[in-house]
Write a structure and sequence with these properties.
Layout lengths: L7 E5 L6 H12 L2 E4 H14 L7 H7 L5 E3 L8 E3 L2 E2 L7 H11 L2 H16 L5 E5 L2 H5 L5 E6 L2 H11 L5 H17 L12 E4 L5 H16 L3
Helix pairs in contact: 1-9, 2-4, 2-5, 7-8
Length: about 230
């Protein structure tokens, strides 16, 4: 029996739509690799903050964009992110990094650097890969075999994210999510938009299991050549 053809899956969408949970579960269920591209942008942002770079100065960011060594583990059961050999999985989720990641990721030199890393990982994934982010289907992997764009109401997204953040205020979380969406959608380099050929899935009224089932079905159909 022939082994399944490796499939590249792009899952985009704003925060709080279930991207990470869905992507990791789909990859694990189908024996594929998994890449959280948002973690890479958070990692380079953490490095900038850690080294005292003025994140309000795009030229300062651009000048050092190539310095940090960022290594992403692609095991969906235990995805890792290292910067210069240091495990930053925890530090990259702080409020400070969250507040500054849009400014850092808008710098063209940063996007070029991280996009190169992402394409390299996707191209070397022998078992296929699920890549989640905000510009995967449009910019990073425009030829991905399966493209999914997850959405949800702002209220649902805020409720989920504040739950993840253990009791954060839902209203302030909602405002922060919408502010980041606006910033990422309006940046000049690789703006956050839905790919024209992506399947949009509104997760507001769906359970996580239902979303996972939907994506798994799409991937399996692609594998079968349908």
């Amino acid at each position: 029996m022939e082994s399944a053809q490796p499939v590249v899956v792009a899952i985009d969408g704003p925060s709080g739509t279930g991207k990470s949970s869905t992507s990791k579960a789909v990859a694990a269920q189908l024996g594929m690799s998994y890449l959280d591209t948002g973690a890479q942008y958070r990692a380079i942002t953490w490095w900038m903050v850690h080294h005292g770079i003025d994140v309000a100065d795009p030229s300062a960011i651009a000048a050092v964009a190539g310095k940090p060594e960022i290594v992403s583990g692609t095991d969906p059961a235990e995805p890792t992110i290292l910067v210069d050999g240091v495990d930053v999985a925890g530090p990259i989720r702080t409020d400070e990094v969250t507040a500054k990641v849009s400014a850092v990721s808008a710098v063209p030199e940063v996007r070029a650097r991280i996009t190169e890393l992402q394409r390299s990982l996707a191209g070397s994934a022998e078992r296929g890969i699920v890549v989640e982010g905000r510009d995967i289907g449009t910019t990073v992997l425009p030829d991905a075999d399966v493209k999914v764009f997850l959405t949800a109401s702002a209220e649902a997204r805020a409720a989920r994210r504040s739950g993840e953040l253990q009791g954060a205020d839902v209203h302030s979380t909602r405002d922060a999510l919408l502010k980041r969406d606006a910033a990422d959608s309006s940046r000049k380099t690789s703006p956050f938009v839905k790919a024209g050929d992506a399947l949009e899935v509104d997760t507001t009224e769906l359970t996580l299991a239902q979303v996972i089932e939907c994506v798994v079905m799409l991937v399996e159909e692609k594998r079968a050549g349908k």
